[in-house]
Amino acid sequence: MVNVLIDGLKERISNAIKINQSIGIILPASNYPDLVQALFERINSTPEEAWVYVTVTKPCDNILSQFEFLKDSKNIKFVDCISRAAGINKANDNCIFVESPTMLEKIGLEIINIFKEVDENVKKYLVIDSLTNLIIYNDPDIVTEFFYHIINRTRTKNIHTISLAIEEEELDKYLTRLIYLNDKILKVRDSFI
Amino acid sequence: MPITELSKNELCDTGIEELDVMLGGGIPTGSTVLVVGSSGSGKTTLCMQYLINGAKKGERGVFFTITEPLFKLTKNMEGFEFYDKKLIESGMVNLIDLRIISERLGLDTEKYTVEDASALLDILRDIADELNVKRLVIDSITALCYRLQTPEMIRDFIFKLGSSLAAMKCTTLLTSEVPPRKFQYSQYGIEEFISDGIMFLGDIERKGDLIRTFQLVKMRGAAHSRTKSAMSISTKNGVELAPLLKSRE
Ligand SMILES: Nc1ncnc2c1ncn2[C@@H]1O[C@H](COP(=O)(O)OP(=O)(O)O)[C@@H](O)[C@H]1O
Ligand SMILES: [Mg+2]
Predict the structure, then answer these.
(1) Which CATH architecture best describes the domain B8-179+188-243?
(2) Which ipTM value was assigned to this complex?
(3) B135 near B171, Cβ under 8 Å?
(4) Contact B209/A99, CB-based, under 8 Å?
């Protein structure tokens, strides 16, 4: 049953990102584990692509121990914005640490720096996990400005962007404003999969 | 002279991409620029990066340290990927402890007389000349000024040093240590008026975190931007700048 869910998600994401430069995925918190699993499986199945995964949700180390197959992946680099703030100091070759999720400019710099080292012909993807958490740590206005910059910069560099927005009632109006900066929006509902 | 009239070889590029863009290509060659900031703001790192970047394209440089002994300086810098030891070993970047020079000159290490200052100035000029350096750093001018005792001596020293180095087409960065969160560019209030440029490394508070900032306050001979940027210091790239997000700081 779970596999069906995840396969369905994988297919929806793959199809959407094929034809859109940027997609926003709105999902209830209960679907978050399935969604990231689908994403990581998708990433792992396409070693010829280059992915940057910005995590504001879980420390990179936790992600790697949960999805062990990512440990040897050469096509994914993490920008971990929460480990340092949480006092976790484990170093990792596949991960760049930003001291705090408030250091948005630095997050932006690191994303672009990683992609600079990727060959021009390689397909490039960026995941932001998640807009919700960026808003929790920052003023919503500055996140909008940040996201607007990111969407524009990645577009000029032909980088596809997938941003996650975990539904949160109090943040709904900010999330809506942000998510609509994307070319395409996917709403994940149990019933849709 | 507007920057557009300066040809490329009259500009000394820092090699820090966004900064060079801000400068319209680079620092006008021969300038004396104050790099201002509180402790830990990135002055030493930025200056070293400037020297290393110059050395990588064949411009020799010299770094005079007063605040930190050499072993400490090199140990800190070795943490950065831009720091290429070979450039030090080959003499493209020369690291010199000014306190050791003062000692050898027999100067009082705490206080300089007018004669001491003049002797030190001669030595600095000789070293710059002999090594034919195009980039020079003094880290920090604050520590040097402290030993110079009077405003006249400070003015005289920086002015004479700046003029001789300008004549050698050597571009100079002087670091200036200021207390945190003060809108002050130098400890003695003189350094900033004699210098051709001021770079200010500061910070802003955002949700309880300090975001590093960079501002080009002044640069004679350049139509530069004065916009505040965000500054990042990373092991991989050293100092980097990015547009500062402005919404409600
Ligand atoms: N290897 C490194 N990687 C990333 N950041 C570093 C590294 N070494 C030092 N830093 C950061 O740079 C700052 C020090 O900068 P520094 O140039 O010594 O400042 P200043 O000369 O103004 O006192 C430190 O506060 C530290 O946060
Ligand atoms: Mg220093």
Answers:
(1) 3-Layer(aba) Sandwich (3.40)
(2) 0.88
(3) yes
(4) yes
